[in-house]
Specification:
Blueprint (H helix, E strand, L loop, with lengths): L1 H17 L8 E2 L37 E4 L10 E7 L7 E10 L4 E9 L21 E2 L1 E7 L6 E6 L9 E8 L4 E9 L8 E6 L4 E4 L7
Parallel strand pairs: 6-11
Antiparallel strand pairs: 1-12, 2-3, 3-11, 4-10, 5-9, 5-11, 5-12, 7-8, 7-10
């Protein structure tokens, strides 16, 4: 009788071990990491979507985010990169996407992104009542903002210093999630208290690296 119980316990442990478990990946891939498009008529790169929270009440359907091609300005990777602008009315251009896997509370994350600055833009936001300047734009910083699955919670995860250099430089941004997030947004933001006409160039964002936290971690 005892041997039968031991055999059943052993068989149960084998079966449980054979059942696949949900795992947190070592990295989370982002769609369209170099902000390309099938043709020049796309105003927002496929795989990315702006969030209305940062648009100062404007309609995102009319958003015209600037995308540069190699024949107009060199990209760091491939043929395209993107420019996110800020405006004096408080509008902050942004793009984001729903992640394949959620960011889990307590885990550490990081990613790399290449950034540069240009004082010029090739397009002007078409819904601005006052003409927005095409030149003499100010340097701004890039923020990473996380949103929950239902969009009811958001928080600033990480940000760069002010991007004030014309050459491409790699920035590594790292954060620990205080709560679970399913969406990640890249947001242009001014450094001071007042909104400005600013500009930041982005290219070649890496997958999100995941560092699982254990009970032994501080």
């Amino acid at each position: 009788m005892l041997s039968a119980r031991l055999f059943l316990a052993f068989l149960s442990s084998v079966l449980l071990a054979a059942v696949p478990r949900a795992q947190t990946p070592e990295s989370i891939l982002l769609r369209n990491p170099s902000f390309g498009a099938y043709n020049r008529n796309f105003t927002v790169p496929p795989g990315w979507t702006p969030h209305v929270l940062f648009l100062a009440g404007e309609d995102p359907r009319f958003l015209r985010i600037t995308r540069f091609y190699r024949n107009s300005e060199p990209s760091h990777h491939g043929n395209t990169h993107i420019a996110l602008a800020t405006y004096r009315n408080g509008l902050r251009e942004n793009i984001g996407q729903r992640l394949r896997y959620p960011m889990i509370r307590g885990h550490r994350y990081s990613l790399d992104i290449w950034c540069a600055y240009s004082p010029d833009r090739t397009t002007v936001h078409p819904i601005q009542r006052d003409p927005a300047p095409r030149h003499d734009l100010q340097p701004v910083r890039l923020q990473l903002v996380g949103f929950s699955e239902d969009g009811s919670r958001s928080t600033l995860l990480a940000e760069t210093p002010v991007i004030d250099h014309a050459d491409w430089r790699k920035y590594t941004l790292a954060w620990t999630c205080a709560q679970a997030f399913r969406y990640l947004y890249l947001v242009a933001h001014w450094a001071g208290p007042d909104a400005i006409d600013g500009n930041v160039l982005l290219d070649d964002i890496s997958p999100i690296r995941v560092q699982l936290m254990t009970s032994k971690d501080p």
